[in-house]
Amino acid sequence: MRTGSRTPAFLAGFDSATAMVRATAAFLAGRDFPALGFPPVLQRPATLVNTLPRRLRETVYILTGWAGTVPQRRLARLDAGELSGWAARQYPPRRYPALAIGSANGAVVHLCAALGMPWLPQTFLVPVRWRVHPDEPAEALRAGLEPARTLLAANPDLQLHHMHDASQDRLMARTMAYFRVKRLRLGPDYERFLAERLESGGTVFVIDCERTWPTRRVADRHVFQHGAVGGATEEEFHRGGPRVAGYLRRYGSHRRRWEGPEPDGRSPEAEWGFEPALLDDIERTARRHGHRVVRVRFPEPQAISPLVADLYRWWYGLRGIPADRLLIESFIVLEPWWTLRTGSTPLWTEFNTEPALRAASGYLDRAGPFGEICLMLFNHGVESVGVAGADQWRSLLARAGRRGEWLGGEPAKYPLDFAQYARYHRALRRLPARRPMPAPLALSQLDAFLAEYGDRYRVRWERLR
């Protein structure tokens, strides 16, 4: 296997799975993860975008997303193995004591960094090029039927979750369909990884985020998901409400509520949820090679974040390092290498919304005061339903005992502060204190932490057959 291979044309470069594989692989190769993993040549243009008027910044964001989309006519050539093969090839070619596979999660990236293990995603985003009004989810479903049939006919190992989020993805949804595909079987590349890259008797952690969402069943392996985890509730996506009406009025929409297809069931959430059909294949392959399987189950993406944050503080205590700096990360704005080099406690949040703000505030309430609180926010370009405002985030920074810092950000331009993607990494590197990079935590140390503190968290660790 070779690391750093070219990203497949069918794979979104801005997605959680893509960024989190890159971040984890970079850490295991002894490197940091600047600017969401994008090349340095793009960092200066990102800074210049902030000088543009708001409408032009939105246009640049839309065009940047459109440039990475896949024409519908090419979907028949998509090979599921190309996606999983790319993920497997990112990691340094050595044997590991453990690996994680399943749901995307930023806290799990830090868990992988602590344990020195890779992560293989179940879900990938295929951004399909089109033009559909973001406030017409029923039209989005109809427009996606034929492309979905084409993709699924060529890939029997995939399940398609067509996700349409007119709140948080308003800008991108104009030019692309979010086709999130979940592996139902490991496939040759993942099977080979378990066989060749895991030490004898190693551990497979199945990352099982149990978050579901109302969906409409379209075909055997095809569901349509109107809305997504974030600031707006399930009820607001499907029934509307004052916040939705105000948001649509603000953006000059002809709608005051969305009229999407009526759900007929629930499915694993398109981006974060784990499809359990993959579990049988994982168990079968692990059993054949003598590996143990541990299913890590939690109800929603942020539920595992406090556990990982406290694991780092416990680890710093073992090393005699102060655990007085909290680093709050958002979506794919994360940095495992410099987290450890600066002795920071990582608290990952799924987005920049009010639920994420409440989760971070709740952790501060429980974990006690921090001398420093640093914030790295994802900017998605939209004043979406339930987005937490700049003043709300500032109030969180004000809880620091000595210093609260918005790393690389221009709060006045949030959530259209696209220059932050080029700046947050430099600001993080400038933080005082440099800690030696430690050897990975042993699995026995993780077991000791969980034995003493594991019942505090909404996370279950289940050893399977």
Number of strands: 15
Q: What number of domains? A: 2
- Structural class, please? alpha/beta
Largest sheet: 6 strands, mixed
Looking at the chains present, what oligomeric state does this protein adopt? single chain
- Into which percentage range does the β-strand content fall? 15-25%
Averaged pLDDT, please? 94
Silhouette: globular
The order of strands across the largest sheet is 3-5-4-8-7-9
Helix share of residues? 25-40%
Distance between the termini: 29 Å
Number of helices: 16
| Gyration radius, rounded | 21 Å
Low-confidence stretches: none
How would you describe what is shown here?
The protein is an alpha/beta fold and 465 residues long. It has 2 domains: 16-298, no CATH class; 305-429, Rossmann fold (3-Layer(aba) Sandwich). The protein contains 16 helices and 15 strands. It has helices at residues 16-28, 43-49, 54-67, 80-89, 106-115, 137-154, 187-196, 234-239, 242-250, 277-288, 305-319, 336-341, 354-367, 390-397, 420-429, 443-453; strands at 96-102, 119-121, 123-129, 158-164, 176-183, 198-209, 212-219, 222-226, 265-268, 292-298, 325-330, 345-349, 372-375, 403-406, 460-463. It has a 6-stranded mixed beta sheet with strand order 3-5-4-8-7-9, sandwiched between helices. Helix 5 (106-115) links the parallel strand 1 and strand 2 (119-121). Helix 1 (16-28) runs parallel beside helix 5 and helix 5 packs parallel to helix 11 (305-319). The longest helix is centred in the N-terminal third of the chain and has 18 residues, at 137-154. The radius of gyration is 21 Å and the shape is globular. The chain starts with 15 loop residues before the first helix and ends with a strand.
